Amino acid sequence: MNISRSDLPLLVSLDTLLATRNVSRAAEKLGISQPALSTQLARLRDLFDDPLLVQSGRRMVPTPRAEALQNPLHQLLSDLGALIRDGIGFDAATSDRDFRIAAPDFLHAAITTKIMDRVATTAPNVRIAMIPGADVWTGMENDRIDLLITSVGTTPPEAIAQKLFDERFVAVQRKDHPRGTGPLDLDTFCSLTHVLIALNEAAFRGPVDEQLAKMGRSRQVVVSAAGFLMAPEVIARSNHIAVIPETVAMLFDHLLDRTAPPFDQPGFAVMMSHHPRRKGDMGLDWLKQQVKDALKPD
Prior knowledge:
Elements: H1 8-20, H2 23-30, H3 34-48, E1 53-56, E2 59-62, H4 64-88, E3 98-102, H5 105-122, E4 127-131, H6 136-141, E5 147-151, E6 160-167, E7 169-174, H7 186-191, E8 193-197, H8 207-214, E9 220-225, H9 230-236, E10 241-245, H10 246-251, E11 256-259, E12 268-274, H11 282-295
Helix pairs in contact: 1-2, 1-3, 1-4, 2-3, 5-11
């Protein structure tokens, strides 16, 4: 097999085809027509003397040869991209790079709110995708996650990490709540009805309840919400209260009042991390600085 410079775009197409296993989706990601990609696939089959992808019902299934190629090919193209990026540097004003940031839902909202105006001004052609923080190390290995922002303890141990800030918890209630405003004492806290954020399952007990139990107290949880961003909407339309990260509460200052809980509720560190291979990537360094500036405490 003789590979020339004209074959390199074919390898990019093959990488996308193997990732999507769908000609129409791959064509959309590559920004070309489906017939054009089908022509490229025919050339790839000639190049490798293998069908590479075969139709099975509505799906395309890789051949054993294609499966053996997938990871080395993706790594090769990633290394080539890094080599080119490092060689030409990074100019935010003219760059058209796409970056992918993985984070929990409440940090998605905080990052999107705080970083987008900054990026739109300094890097008008840069695009940022906010994606779920699932299977993050594989995503980093495959260059499908550029930056991970998450709580300490959930950062992959192999990643290069640094602390962004310390998150704390606050108690929130709707504007014009019947209890009034001001400090929240323990008796009032326990007498009110509560919304609990249960990220992984429908639960009615969490860390706040464990803290109360240590003091011989309890609360009445009446709603279990599946995410931090769901709880404020429920609270804004009811007399319930909740204990949520302050980063979330600040996004809803127009709807909610916030105050310190009447007990010590431990917070957590928010970390930013990336694959060690990306060290020295000037574009990623720029992105990290934008995130740090956007999320630093006021």
